Amino acid sequence: MIDDWKKEDSFQSDLSFIRDDGHTDVILQKPFTFMNKSGEAVSKLMKKFKIPIGGNNIVLVHDDLDIELGKYKIQRARSPRDHKGVLSVEKSLGSSDFLRVRIGVDSRAGDRTIRGEDYVLMKLSKEEKEILDESIEAAVKDLREVIQY
Fold this sequence. Notes:
By secondary structure, this protein is of the alpha+beta class. It is built from 4 helices and 6 strands; from the N terminus they run βββαββαβαα.
């Protein structure tokens, strides 16, 4: 678990730097903008650190209601459908050429009476949180193989 986050107002984000041999290999970013403005924070980071778009330079991790809780998908340039955060990043970068780790959060088991916009803001149960944590760990392991880090 990464726990050395630092608030960086200039990037509208919390950042964590993963270094190897004194060089920064990975920059983790948690924007504290509204989700539909998260692309602005990502764009600022990309410009400051001169990170080129394409390849495996950007990995966007986000929740996905189209995927069952406990499952995930790692894909490139996958359509965000209605995910406002992904749309914001695509718009700000002018590209969809980046990896996505789509973390499943849907545990409604066919009950669609709760709107998606409301569902994603609900608090997870202890059991759901444990399932989510396990799927995130598995996704990180698979992502390391994909990007060879």
